[in-house]
Amino acid sequence: MQATARLPNPVLILIGASVMMSLAMGMRQCLGLFLPPVTQDLGLSASDYTFAIAVQNVAWGVSQAPLGAVADKWGLRPVLLSGAALYVAAMVIMALASGVPMLTLSAMLTGISIACTGSSLAMTATARAVSPARRSMLLGVVGAFSSVGTLVIAPLLQFMLERWDWRMGVALFILLALAMVPAAFMAGAVDRMPQPVEKRASMGEVVGLALRNRRFVVLCCTYFVCGLQLIFVNTHLPNYLALCGQDPMLGATALATIGGVNIAGCWMAGWLGGIYPKHILLGLTYFGRSLVLTVYFLIPPTPTSTLIFAAAMGMLWLGVIPLVSGYVAELFGTRYMATILGLSFVIHQMGSVIGAWGGGMIFDAFGSYDLAWRIGVAIGITAGVVQIFFGGPARPKRDMRPLMAAG
To answer: Minimal CA–CA distance to 335: which of 391, 403, 254, 265?
Structure first.
């Protein structure tokens, strides 16, 4: 009875994971608001700034699987706390930046810190803290609460950027990164939760099994589109609106709207993922995003059309996270979930690099974003088709069952 009394409260774990992920992802999704003031103040081009964002996404993707392996072997809490501390250091370096090298260093450290505190490890903590029957729903709930960060941070940051030097906005991010530390500690308590008994397998066996599985490979390849579309909108929407003569606050309001509506979008994705095949829902999400992007960029932006666009994208924004995380847990269980999610995230971040840096390069070359959004729409439609027709059925093969959770 004493041992049972010492077990951590799953609700506190979920709260910690939600707050940590909300701050980590919320700050990351608002970095595009810094593009106009930073480039003007430091005399940089759009591609200079987006190169740093691209480096951030490379660092995030490359480090996600190794950090997931560390968390699977030695526990989530040390990795989560290290990531929160590294986020603080990255923001301090950004505040001191005077050119591309320091901005790039800050971005690289930010990418590594998000690998520790962002969606993959937060979803792993959530999946391990709850029963399989409630997993999809609660992954959606945690993902939904994590969107509160973007909802609050975007307008607050833009308010500060309009009145003070951009480094005051970075100071806000330093404070928010400090607030991640207690949240990471709470989420890390999942290390003391009893886990279902699984067949022991080496990390190499699990990774090899994942890479040989067609459904997982398809999931990884289509996840590329998620990274490309999201980081393109995050990074370039504020600049696009400024070029079209819109109020700078509109970009921040749009990002906040995406974050706010995404609360419902993530919850709905998690709920639907417990009822319908997740690979079908993912494919429909990529179709939906492509349709919304097409309609928005075909007409001149107005405040009304931008907010409608943001609301529509919000419903489709981070709902892929509970779907992808739940699908990985279905296929492989939770024992090596952080590592396997990390593998899929490498491909996701390849898309993020192209969305951020590629979008900046296209803009510098042609003076518009027309080609960039057309590319995003084309690969989104392709990903939707591939995911629906080649990403299922949503059940594990016989040779995967020994690695799945018994409970």
So the answer is: 403
Assign residue 161 the CATH number of its domain.
Answer: 1.20.1250.20
* Interatomic CA distance for residues 115 and 90, integer angstroms: 13
Burial of 299 (0-12, 13-18, 19+ CB in 10 A): exposed
Residue 407 lies in a domain: no
For the whole model, what pTM was predicted? 0.70
Query: SS3 string of 198-236?
Result: CCCCCHHHHHHHHHHCHHHHHHHHHHHHHHHHHHHHHHH
Q: Is 187 within a domain?
A: yes
**Residues in CB range of 170: below 8 A, 6 or more apart:** 34, 91, 94, 95
Residue 2 lies in a domain: no
DSSP strands (E only) in 249-303: none
Domain range for residue 75? Answer: 8-192+201-401
Task: Report if residue 99 sits inside a domain.
Answer: yes
Number of domains in the chain: 1
- Exposure b/e, 260-270, CB count within 10 A at least 16 = b: bbbbebbbbbb
Could you tell me the mean pLDDT of each successive run of 10 residues in the chain, 407 residues long?
Answer: 58 82 82 78 75 80 79 82 90 83 86 83 77 72 72 79 82 89 83 61 70 86 85 80 81 79 82 84 91 89 90 83 81 75 79 78 81 87 89 53 40
- 89's CB contacts (< 8 A; 6+ apart) are 109
DSSP assignment of 49-107 equals HHHHHHHHHHHHHHHHHHHHHHHHHH-HHHHHHHHHHHHHHHHHHHHH--SHHHHHHHH
CA distance 258 to 316: 9
Contact indicator for 250, 345 with CB cutoff of 8 Å: no
* Closest to 24 measured CA to CA, from 68, 69, 56: 56
